[in-house]
């Protein structure tokens, strides 16, 4: 199974576990809620989903291009930003807990990125530029920090962090 398929499967499994799949809330349905910002889509064939349950969520999802898919799901007080510019980009963020930050910035074609956070005080950043790049960060615990930066073609990275305590930090940089 490719990392892109794993990212999609993990995001769907997380959403199913949270009771959000199938009846996923579209950004337009959430505009009257004060806990989320609406997704902004420029281009054609874009899919944006934002879902938030309880707490003070802050989410921003901006997409430009075509055939991009972006999903942000939050439970608790968290912050997420996803910016996608290109074609056939897949991005997903799932946050359960509090005081977590997740950022996905993608540009190019056919890139896939996912961040899954459970706990408190976790920070994650994925920046991808190019084509066919895949990145996944999974964090479970307190005070974890991870960054993946990829610029090139067909690069793959995956970071998994489990545990509690500040000072747990991982940085992956790949260029091709």
UniProtKB/TrEMBL annotation:
Q: Which GO terms describe its cellular component?
A: pilus
Alphabetically list the UniProt keywords.
Answer: Signal
> What highest taxon heads this organism's lineage?
Bacteria
Gene Ontology BP, a term: cell adhesion
* InterPro entries (UniProt xref): Curlin_rpt
**Which interval of the chain is the signal sequence?**
1-27
User: What family is reported?
Assistant: Belongs to the CsgA/CsgB family.
Q: Could you identify this protein by its name? A: Uncharacterized protein
Q: Which organism is it from?
A: Pseudomonas marincola
């Amino acid at each position: 199974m490719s990392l892109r398929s794993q990212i999609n499967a993990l995001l769907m499994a997380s959403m199913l576990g949270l009771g959000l799949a199938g009846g996923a809330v579209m950004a337009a349905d959430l505009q009257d809620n004060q806990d989320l910002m609406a997704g902004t889509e420029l281009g054609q064939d874009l899919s944006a989903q934002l879902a938030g349950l309880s707490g003070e969520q802050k989410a921003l999802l901006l997409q430009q291009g075509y055939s991009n898919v972006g999903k942000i799901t939050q439970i608790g007080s968290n912050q997420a930003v996803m910016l996608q510019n290109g074609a056939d980009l897949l991005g997903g963020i799932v946050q359960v807990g509090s005081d977590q930050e997740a950022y996905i910035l993608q540009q190019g074609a056919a890139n896939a990125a996912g961040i899954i956070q459970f706990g408190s005080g976790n920070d994650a950043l994925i920046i991808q530029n190019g084509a066919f790049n895949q990145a996944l960060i999974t964090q479970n615990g307190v005070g974890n920090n991870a960054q993946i930066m990829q610029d090139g073609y067909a690069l793959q990275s995956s970071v998994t962090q489990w545990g509690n305590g500040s000072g747990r930090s991982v940085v992956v940089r790949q260029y091709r």
